[in-house]
Recover the amino acids of this structure.
């Protein structure tokens, strides 16, 4: 069984007050780069980006990280990515600080942005 980590890019970037709001594309690019080199125990990492952050990382696969640009809001795309992975038989973990999203996302396992930042 493959394992998939779905990352709420906005929540992870927004969890650290480092000036990300002045350069959303740059903050998304830095997170993407960290995910690329991190030794995470997942077969695939899906980084969901929305709004201005999408300009920082092209949509598509780069090694084991797949960047997805949300067409509307990030939460809907995160739920869709998680549901699709579960339907494909994968074990799914979502990283988000959004309590409503965490309560309504398909997988049973949800981690906080701080958990992910400790890993990368």
């Amino acid at each position: 069984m493959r394992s998939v980590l779905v990352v709420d890019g906005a929540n992870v970037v927004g969890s650290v007050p480092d000036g990300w709001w002045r350069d959303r594309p740059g903050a998304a690019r830095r997170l993407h780069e960290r995910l690329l080199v991190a030794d995470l125990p997942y077969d695939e990492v899906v980084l969901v980006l929305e709004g201005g952050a999408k300009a920082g990382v092209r949509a598509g696969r780069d090694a084991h990280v797949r960047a997805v640009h949300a067409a509307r809001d990030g939460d809907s795309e995160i739920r869709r990515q998680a549901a699709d992975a579960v339907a494909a038989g994968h074990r799914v973990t979502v990283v988000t600080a959004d309590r409503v999203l965490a309560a309504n996302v398909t997988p049973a396992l949800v981690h906080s942005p701080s958990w992910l930042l400790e890993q990368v």
About this structure: The chain has a mean pLDDT of 94.
